[in-house]
Amino acid sequence: MAPITEVEGRRLPLSNLEKVLYPATGFTKGEVLHYYATVAEVLLPHLRDRAVSFLRYPDGPDGQVFFTKNVPPGTPEWVTTAEVPRVEGPSRMVLVQDLPSLMWAANLVTEFHTHQWLVDTPEEADRIVFDLDPGAPASIVQCCEVALWLRERLAADGIEAYAKTSGSKGLHLLTAVRGASSEQVSEYAKELAVEAEKAMPRLALHRMTRSLRPGKVFVDWSQNAARKTTATPYTLRARSEPTVSAPVTWEEVEECGAPGRLDFHARDIAPRVQDYGDLLAPLLDRGRAGRLP
Fold first, then answer.
1. What string of DSSP letters covers 115-184?
2. 162 - beta bridge partners?
3. Taking a C-beta distance cutoff of 8 angstroms, is the pair 216, 196 a contact?
C-alpha cells in the first residue's frame, strides 16, 4: 500500500518512491518528488491559472511516454479543474494551483506543459515563446547566437525577453505581452523568425522542413498557436538524465561556448534559485508586459 503523506492538509498516497526513473544516474521517483517540493516556490507561479498538459513517463523515459490533456481518472476532488476551449470542443483540464496539487501531479511522473494564455482569458495571449531547436551539428551554442539577435529585435519593439533551456538540446525565449490574441502573437512571432533567417541565413531557419535543418537553428514560432503548449519553467524532462528546463541569465547566454555550459540537472536548480531567485519572475508582472507593434 502506498504511504500516505500530508501536504498542507491534503492526504496524498505517494507510490513507488524507490523506483529508478532515470537509469543513467539512478535518480528515483522519490527524488523527483523531492525536486518538485524544493522548487515549488518558483515553479507554481508559472503553472498557476494555466491549463496543464501532462507528458507522462511513469516507467522512465525509456518506457511509454504519452500526453494526458484531459483530467486524469482518479484526480482528487480538491484539485482545481477548468473547462477550456479546444479545436475538437471544450475540454476539462487540470490547473496546478498549490503545493498539494503539484505533488499529486508529480506523483504521476510527468513533464508540465502549459499554454501561452491564462484559463480565465483564453482569447488573449500573455506570452510569446520562441523554441530554438538546433539541427546537428548545430547545438545550444548556435541557439544562443540566435537568441541574442531575437532579444535585440524584440527590445526594438519595446518587448523584454528572457531565456531558459529547453531541458533538451535547445533554448526557449519567453516574453510577457498583453492586448493580443494567439493568432496575432503567432503572426508577429513568424515575422521575427523570418527576419532572423534573413539576417542570419547560414544560422537561422523559420521553416520546419527537415532537409533544411542540419547545421541551423529552427526558430519555432508555431508554439504560439492557442492549441500548443510548451515545457513549463523548472519542469523535469523525460530524457536519459534528470535535466530541467532551467531559466538562465543573459550573461550565461552570451558566454555559452560549449553545449555543456547550459546543461542543468535537478541537483543544480535549488542552488541557482538561491543565487538568482526566479530569473523569469518579471514575466509574472503584468506592468512589464509589452504590446505588439
1. -SB-TT-TTSEEEEEEEEEEPTT--HHHHHHHHHHHHHHHHHTT--EEEEE-SSSSEEEEEEEEEE-HHH
2. 174
3. no
CA distance linking residue 98 with residue 8, whole number of Å: 9
Which sign does the torsion angle of CA 104, 108, 113, 114 carry?
negative
Distance CA 280, CA 42 (A): 9
CA-wise closest residue to 56 among 288, 271, 253, 237: 237
Q: Which of 42, 53, 66 is nearest to 105 (CA)?
A: 53
| Residues found in the chain | 293
Residue written as grid cell 523584454: 160
Q: In the 8-state DSSP scheme, what is residue 243?
A: B
Grid coordinates representing 275 are 543565487
CA distance 116 to 129: 8
Residues forming a β-bridge with 129: 174
Distance, CA of 236 to CA of 41 (rounded, Å): 15
CA 64 vs CA 80, 116, 138: distances in Å? 27, 27, 29
| φ, ψ of residue 44 in degrees (nearest 5) | -55, -40
Which one-letter DSSP state was computed for residue 236?
A: B
Give, for all 293 residues of the chain, the pLDDT tens digit. 577 889 999 999 999 999 999 999 999 999 999 999 999 999 999 999 999 999 999 999 999 999 999 999 999 999 999 999 887 778 999 999 999 999 999 999 999 999 999 999 999 999 999 999 999 999 999 999 999 999 999 999 999 999 999 999 999 999 999 999 999 999 999 999 999 999 999 999 999 888 888 999 999 999 999 999 999 999 999 999 999 999 999 999 999 999 899 999 999 999 999 999 999 999 999 999 999 99
